[in-house]
Design a protein that fits this description.
Chain lengths: 478, 459
C-alpha cells in the first residue's frame, strides 16, 4: 500500500496544485504534499512488510502488463531519498519567485510521482511508462523556467533520453515475446532464457537508455548544459534523483536480465566509466561557473558508481548502492549553497565571488562540511560508499582502481579550490554584503549535514536494505 | 452495410437540400445530423440490426473489425464537422455540395472496409478519390488550390491506371477477382501474381502517400483549403490503410515472403523522408503534411506485419491520429499565420487551446499516457512479434525520436517563446469538442483495453 501511496500522493497533489491560485498557497500545499509522502515512506520503512512494499492491480491484461509495484533493497533506498529530497528542495527554494508558480509546483510534484514510479515498477511496460513520465514534467520545467539558452539545451536533453528509451522499448518488446507466459511482469522477464548472442545486443539497447540518463561518458554531453540552464530546484531533482534512475535501472533490470552480457561487456562499461571520471574531473577543475563545476563533479561520481555496479563483487555493489543515497544528499547540499549564492548575488561565477566566510560564517561551515563529504573524507557518508566501491574495483582489476583513484585526488583539488575562491580570499565588491539565510534554508542544510554524519558513522540500516539487492545480483551471476 | 447505404443517400439529401434550403448556414447542421445518423446506423450494424443486407454474391464480407473501424471513422467525422463545419461552409459558394461530396467519400470508405473482391476495392477507391479531386480544387479563385487539384487529379488517375493494370494481372493469375483465390495461386502463374501484387502495392502506396510515391502530398495538402486537407490527411488516409491491410491480409498473406522485403523498404523510406523533411518545414501546415507521411510510415508497419496485433493498432491509430490531426487543423484553420512563429506566446493568450494542442502533439509524437503511444506501441509490438526485420523496428523508433523535434517545436513556440499570441475566435462548443477529443486521447492512453480493444475481442 505504501508503494502505491508514494506515487499517488505526489500525482494527485500535483494535479491539485495546478488549480491552486496564489503563490503562497501553492508553496505551502506542495511542501505539505511532499511531507505527507515522506511520512508515508517512513511508515513503509518502519513496517517493512510485503503488504506495504508491494502492490498489484490489473491494468492491461491482453498486453500482459499489470500495475505491479515492488519496493525492495535499492528501490527502498531510492524511494527514501526521493521522499526526503523533495521537502528539502521545496524548503530551500522557498524564497524563489516563479511566474505561474502553480504550474511550476504542479509539474515538480508530477515529476516526483514519475521518479517514484520508476523506482517501484515491477513490470516492464509500467517501468517504461514511468521512465517517460518522469521526463515530461522536467522537460516543461526546464524549458519554461530555465536560463537564457534553456530551449535548445532542454531539447537536446529530451531527445537524447527519449531516443534512448525508445531503444529500450524495442528491447522490452523483444523480451516480452520470449517470455513463456507472454507477460511483462518482472519475474517473468527474469526467467527468460536467452542465448549469449541475444543478450549481447539486447544489453546495448537497454544500456544506451540508462547510460544517457546517468550519464556515462560519452553520453554525457547534455548534462552540464542542462544543469546550468535549469532552475536550481529542477537541477536538484535532476542530479539528486533522476540520474539515479539510470543507475537503479542497471541494478533492477539490466544486470538481472542480461547477466552473461554484463560479464561479457564489463570491461567496456567500466572502461567508459573510468574515462568519464577522469575526463569530468579535469573539466571540473577548469570551470568558473559553480553550477557547471558541480555538474562535472557529478559526472565523475556517477562514473564511479556505474563502474562499481559491474565489478561483480559484493563490496562494489554495496558501495554503489549506499552511494546512491549519499551522493543524492551531498549534491543536494551543494546545490542549496549555490542557490543561496545565486539568489543573493545574481552570479555563479567564482571569479566574481570571494571572502564570503567573514560575512557568513555559518554558511561557510555548512558548505565546507558538504564539500568534504563530496571529497569523501572519513566520517562523512560518501567515504563508506567510495571506499567500498574502490575496494570492489580493486578486486576486479587493479589498474582501473589506480586510474579511477586519481579522480579522488582531482575531486579534492576542484572542491577545495571552489571553497577557497568562494568563501576565503579577498572579498569582492559583490560579496562584501554577506548573505542572510532564512530559517527554512538553514534547517534544510542542517538536515543534510546531519544525514552526512549519521550515515558516515552508522551506515548499517542502509546496508541492511541494500543487502537484499546485492545478494540477488550476486546470486544471478553465479 | 447500413453506413454504405445511408451515407450515399445522405449525400443526395445534402445536394437536394441545397436547392430547397435557402439559408446556407444550415448546411453544417444538416451535415452534423447526417454524421450522427451514420454513427447510429453503424452502431445498429454492430448490434446485428441491418436495414438492408446483401453481400453481393460474396463481393463484400462483413466483420467486426470493419464495423469498429467505421464507428471510429464516424465519430471522427462528427468531430470534424463540429470543429470545422463553419470553415467548410466558407470555402466557396456551394456549401451543400462540399458536404455531399464528403458523404459520398464515406460511402467509399464503407466499401473499402468490407471488400472481398478486387472490383469492389477499385470501386471504393475511386469513389473516395474523385470527390477528393473536386474538394481539393473547391477554392476555385485560388491558383494554388487549382494547381493542387490538377496535380492530384493527374497523379491520382495515373495511379488508378496502375492499379487497374495490377488487377488485370492478378485476374490473369487466379482467374477470379475474389481475394481468397490469390491466397494459394499456384507457382505456375507466379510471375503474373507478383507483377499484379507489385502494381497494386505501388498504386496503394501512392494513395497513402508512402515514399517514394509521396511527391504529390505536400503540394496538394498545402494547396487545398485547410479544412479539406484535414479530412484528406486523416479519415481518408486511415481508410486507405484499412484497404491496404485488408487486401494484403485476405489476398496475399500466403505469399508474404515474396513482398515483405518490398514493403519493408517502402516503410523505411517513408519514415525517413517524412520525418527528415518535416524537420525542415517553416509552415505548420506543411509540417503536418510531412508528418502525415511520417505517420503513414508507422501505419505501413501494419501492412508489413498483417497480424491481429497490427490490425488492433490500426484501430488505435485511427482514433489517435484522426482526433489529434483534425484538432490541430481545426485550430490552424482559424489562424492567420501558419508559420511556427505564429504560435509564439499562444499559451498566455489561450491557455486551454494551448493545453489541448499540447495533448494532440504529444499523442502524435507517441509519448506515453496518450493514445498515440499505444498506437505506435502496437505497431512496434506487431513488428517485433513478426520476428524478422528487427532493423526496421529500430529504425522506426529512431525516426519516432526525430519526430519529437518538429512536434515539440510547436509546443516550444506556444509555451516558451515570447510573442503576441494571435487572437483566435472560438465558440464555447468548439472548445468543448476539442477538450472532448483531448480527453479521449488521454483516456485511451491509459486504458486502451477497456475503452476500445476489449470490444474487438468480445465479438
Amino acid at each position: 500500500m505504501v508503494a502505491l501511496l508514494l506515487i499517488l500522493i505526489p500525482l494527485l497533489g500535483g494535479l491539485v496544485g495546478f488549480f491552486l491560485k496564489g503563490e503562497k498557497q501553492v508553496k505551502t500545499w506542495s511542501l505539505l504534499v511532499s511531507l505527507v509522502s515522506l511520512a508515508a515512506m517512513i511508515y513503509g520503512l518502519a513496517d517493512y512488510s510485503p503488504a506495504n512494499r508491494e502492490f498489484y492491480a490489473n491494468w492491461l491484461p491482453q498486453l500482459g502488463s499489470s500495475f505491479a509495484l515492488k519496493m525492495d533493497g535499492a528501490s527502498a533506498v531510492l524511494c527514501a531519498l526521493t521522499a526526503l529530497a523533495y521537502p528539502l528542495i521545496f524548503l530551500s527554494t522557498n524564497g524563489n519567485k516563479y511566474a505561474n508558480s502553480h504550474a511550476f509546483y504542479g509539474l515538480m510534484l508530477l515529476a516526483q510521482a514519475g521518479i517514484s514510479g520508476v523506482f517501484l515498477a515491477a513490470d516492464g511496460l509500467l517501468f517504461y511508462f514511468f521512465w517517460e513520465l518522469a521526463l515530461i514534467p522536467v522537460y516543461f520545467l526546464c524549458s519554461r523556467w530555465g536560463g537564457e539558452r534553456r530551449i535548445p539545451v532542454t531539447f537536446k536533453f529530451f531527445v537524447y533520453t527519449f531516443a534512448g528509451s525508445l531503444l529500450m522499448l524495442v528491447g522490452l518488446l523483444y523480451l516480452y515475446y520470449q517470455t513463456p507466459d507472454a507477460s511483462f511482469s518482472m519475474n517473468s522477464l527474469y526467467t527468460v532464457k536467452l542465448t549469449v548472442g541475444q543478450q549481447s545486443w539486447l544489453f546495448w539497447l537497454f544500456f544506451v537508455a540508462f547510460a544517457v540518463k546517468m550519464p556515462v561518458f560519452p553520453f554525457h554531453t547534455w548534462q552540464p548544459d542542462t544543469y546550468e540552464q535549469s532552475p536550481t530546484a529542477v537541477t536538484m531533482v535532476l542530479s539528486a534523483l533522476m540520474v539515479k534512475m539510470g543507475l537503479f535501472a542497471v541494478v533492477r533490470w539490466l544486470i538481472p536480465l542480461f547477466p552473461a552480457a554484463a560479464i561479457q561487456y564489463d570491461n567496456v562499461v567500466i572502461g567508459l566509466s573510468v574515462i568519464g571520471m577522469i575526463y569530468a574531473s579535469i573539466l571540473a577543475m577548469k570551470q568558473d561557473d559553480l553550477k557547471r563545476l558541480i555538474a562535472y563533479s557529478s559526472i565523475a561520481h556517477i562514473g564511479l558508481m556505474s563502474a562499481a555496479l559491474f565489478v561483480n563483487n559484493e563490496s562494489g555493489l554495496q558501495g554503489a548502492m549506499i552511494q546512491f543515497f549519499s551522493h543524492g544528499v551531498n549534491v543536494l547540499g551543494m546545490w542549496i549553497v549555490v542557490e543561496l549564492i545565486e539568489r543573493r548575488f545574481g552570479t555563479r561565477k567564482m571569479s566574481e565571488l570571494g571572502g564570503l566566510a567573514s560575512q557568513s560564517p555559518v554558511l561557510a561551515i555548512l558548505l565546507v562540511i558538504v564539500a568534504l563529504a563530496n571529497v569523501a573524507l572519513p566520517l562523512t557518508n560518501a567515504f563508506i560508499g567510495e571506499f567500498l566501491m574502490f575496494n570492489g574495483l580493486f578486486h576486479f582489476n587493479v589498474w582501473y582502481a589506480a586510474v579511477g583513484g586519481l579522480s579522488i585526488i582531482l575531486s579534492a583539488v576542484y572542491t577545495l579550490r571552489m571553497i577557497q575562491k568562494v568563501f576565503f580570499g579577498t572579498e569582492s565588491a559583490l560579496s562584501a554584503t554577506g548573505i542572510q539565510i532564512s530559517f527554512a534554508e538553514r534547517f534544510s542544510l542542517w538536515v543534510i549535514v546531519a544525514a552526512i554524519f549519521v550515515m558516515g558513522v552508522y551506515p548499517k540500516p542502509v546496508f541492511a536494505l541494500t543487502q537484499e539487492t546485492a545478494s540477488l545480483i550476486l546470486g544471478i551471476f553465479k | 452495410m447500413n453506413l454504405i447505404l445511408i451515407s450515399a443517400i445522405w449525400g443526395i439529401v445534402m445536394m437536394f437540400s441545397g436547392l430547397f434550403v435557402k439559408d446556407k448556414s444550415q448546411a453544417k447542421n444538416i451535415a452534423i445530423g447526417g454524421a450522427l445518423l451514420l454513427l447510429i446506423v453503424n452502431l445498429l450494424d454492430v448490434k446485428g440490426i441491418s436495414i438492408f443486407h446483401s453481400d453481393f454474391g460474396g463481393m463484400l464480407s462483413y466483420d467486426l473489425f470493419g464495423y469498429i473501424f467505421l464507428t471510429l471513422v464516424s465519430v471522427s467525422l462528427l468531430v470534424y464537422f463540429l470543429l470545422s463545419g463553419k470553415e467548410i461552409q466558407q470555402v466557396g459558394n456551394h456549401p451543400f455540395e462540399y458536404f455531399a461530396l464528403i458523404f459520398f467519400i464515406m460511402s467509399g470508405i464503407g466499401l473499402v472496409s468490407f471488400f472481398n473482391n478486387l472490383l469492389i476495392l477499385f470501386l471504393g477507391i475511386e469513389i473516395i478519390s474523385i470527390p477528393l479531386y473536386i474538394l481539393t480544387g473547391s477554392d476555385k479563385r485560388n491558383l494554388k488550390s487549382n494547381e493542387a487539384a490538377l496535380k492530384y487529379f493527374l497523379m491520382g488517375s495515373f495511379s488508378t491506371g496502375i492499379m487497374l493494370l495490377g488487377i488485370a494481372f492478378l485476374y490473369g493469375a487466379a482467374g477470379s477477382f475474389q481475394l481468397a483465390q490469390f491466397q494459394y495461386a499456384g507457382d505456375k502463374e507466379g510471375l503474373f501474381l507478383i507483377l499484379g501484387m507489385v502494381f497494386v502495392l505501388i498504386s496503394l502506396a501512392f494513395k497513402v502517400s508512402a515514399a517514394p510515391f509521396h511527391f504529390w502530398t505536400p503540394d496538394v495538402y498545402d494547396g487545398a483549403p485547410t479544412v479539406f486537407t484535414s479530412f484528406m490527411a486523416t479519415i481518408v488516409k486511415v481508410a486507405f490503410f484499412v484497404a491496404y491491410v485488408n487486401l494484403f491480409l485476405n489476398a496475399f498473406e500466403g505469399s508474404k515472403l515474396k513482398w515483405q522485403l518490398a514493403v519493408a523498404v517502402v516503410t523505411a523510406l517513408t519514415l525517413f523522408i517524412g520525418n527528415i523533411t518535416a524537420v525542415y518545414q517553416q509552415s505548420v501546415k506543411r509540417m503536418l503534411a510531412y508528418s502525415s507521411i511520417a505517420q503513414a510510415g508507422f501505419m505501413l508497419l501494419a501492412v508489413f506485419t498483417i497480424n491481429d496485433m497490427a490490425r488492433q493498432g490500426l484501430l488505435l491509430y485511427t482514433v489517435a491520429y484522426c482526433f489529434a490531426t483534425i484538432g490541430i487543423f481545426a485550430v490552424l484553420s482559424k489562424m492567420k499565420d501558419f508559420t511556427f512563429d505564429g504560435f509564439n506566446g499562444l499559451a498566455s493568450k489561450e491557455p486551454l487551446l494551448a493545453a489541448v494542442l499540447t495533448v494532440f502533439l504529444l499523442s502524435l509524437a507517441g509519448i506515453p499516457l496518450t493514445a498515440g503511444f499505444f498506437a505506435k506501441y502496437f505497431m512496434l509490438a506487431a513488428a517485433v512479434k513478426a520476428g524478422t526485420y528487427l532493423w526496421l523496428v529500430i529504425f522506426a523508433v529512431l525516426m519516432a525520436a526525430v519526430s519529437v523535434y518538429y512536434y515539440f517545436r510547436v509546443i516550444t513556440a506556444m509555451y516558451f517563446k515570447e510573442g503576441e499570441g494571435q487572437v483566435i475566435e472560438t465558440t464555447a462548443s468548439f472548445r468543448y469538442v476539442l477538450l472532448f477529443a483531448a480527453v479521449v486521447i488521454v483516456l485511451l492512453g491509459v486504458f486502451p483495453n477497456q475503452l476500445l480493444l476489449d470490444w474487438l475481442n468480445l465479438g
